Amino acid sequence: MAKILFANTMIFEGTNKDLVPGEVLVQGNRIQAVAGPGETLPREGCDVIDAGGATLMPGMVNTHCHLTYNNGTTVAELTALPVEEHVLLTMHNAKQALDMGFTAAVGAASAKPRLDIVIRNEINKGKIPGPRLLAGSPELTVTGGLADDNQLDAKHPSVSIICDGADEFRRVVRTMIREGVDLIKFNNSGDSFCYPRMAAYDNPMTEDEVAAICNTANNIGKRLAAHAHADSSVRQCMKYDVEFIFHASFATDETIEQLERVKHKHYVSPAIAARYNTTYEAKDWGITTDVAEMIGNKRELEKGIEVMTKMHKAGIKVLPFGDYGFAWLPQGTEARDLEHFVNLFGFSPWESLRAATAYGGEAWVGKSGEKMGRVAPGYLADILLVDGNPLLDLSLLQDRNALLAIMKDGQFHKPFQGRVAAGQSLAAE
Ligand SMILES: [Zn+2]
To answer: Given the DSSP bridges, would you call strands 267-269 and 403-408 parallel, antiparallel or unpaired?
Structure first.
């Protein structure tokens, strides 16, 4: 089995505050050994890569990923895509995610039922490049919930599957599991994007509907994610073992305390760019800050900042990325979240990077016993070489040219071709 030894690197292990000089040995698809400062690993039988002092870190994990989104301005633009074009779009987005250093992703709702599934299968077969992918179902919603934009006399195609009552939800969850999803996504709160009919702090799902979705999925060992802005939504996530809690903007202090007690079981992804960018950077698409305020998006941002800051202090795992794929937060720019976490929630840069790697990896593998997201012996060899120190400048991770090498599962997606100063590599583009 080929052995690759990365020498002359500065290592971000996934959980450390400072970079540490060292060497890393990859054998097959795993990290076999790591040497610390002043130590060396045996070179015998290895391809040795002199990284020239570049940073070696775990691949990033996007735990709230919509590979099927098309950087449009409305859901109607997305549903207008025929399935053939949509498959190709998703395939291109998968490659771009890996190009940007994301070696794993959690499908947080697929815009058509089988898109995530077929793309995951092709990635797993090695036929197309992309991150390790957990295939998500479309978002399951109730009549009038987020992503049901129908009117009585005007039907609109939707990215969701609309159900009412426990029996309908059970049937749809089972159908999606039959088709091959890894994860069921449901909407147990409203959102500013369904203004004016339902606010983010309202929860349109009944207890028996949520129980039906979650028990059906949990019984078959499938995983769960919820669009859960409202306080009652977050409580339902705890009650029914929903690992991935999305948004959680309106969680009360009591709920945060409860979540702190079970924090080993849940991951919170606020998808804060869908609030920050929409409130402050979407005016070219007609969403001024005034519009964002009117529809409630700015309120979600403000509450989200307050709640995530508290959750982070309480040691609850708050994870970056999420909901990229709209015009004002396009696919490929996800790493900007690392800075949002520092600027908005008070994360240190290393905490932001820990959330993107060690915690993201832990979230992705779940209860499988697999090891992902750290540079440590036995972990999957998902590795980035970065031209510079991301702990001093997180924006490096938004720059494709600064990613000198990308390895997934022990294989180079982007081989190392030497260290070039960022300016030079940009000039060469
Ligand atoms: Zn989402």
So the answer is: unpaired
Q: 48-99 pLDDT, tens per residue? A: 999 999 999 999 999 999 999 999 999 889 999 999 999 999 999 999 999 9
What confidence category does residue 6 fall into, taking pLDDT thresholds of 50, 70 and 90? very high
**Within this chain, do residues 342 and 396 fall inside the same structural domain, yes or no?**
no
Residue type (1 letter), 303: K
What percentage of the chain reaches a pLDDT higher than 70? 97
- The answer to whether residues 173 and 109 belong to one domain is yes
Provide Rg for the chain, Cα atoms.
Answer: 21
Total count of domains within the chain: 2
Cα–ligand 1 centroid distance for 185 (angstroms) = 9
Whole-number Å distance, alpha carbon 83 to ligand 1 midpoint, is: 20
Centre of ligand 1 to C-alpha 320, Å, is 12
CA distances from 30 to 2, 95, 99, 174 (A): 11, 22, 20, 35
Whether 260 and 307 have beta carbons less than 8 Å apart is answered as no
Residue 88 sits at the vertex; the CA angle it makes with 59 and 124, to the nearest 5 degrees, is 45
Ligand 1 centroid – CA 382 distance (Å): 24
Same domain, 85 and 100: yes
Tell me how far the alpha carbon of residue 65 lies from the centroid of ligand 1, in angstroms. Answer: 7
**Rounded Cα distance, 203 and 205, in Å:** 6
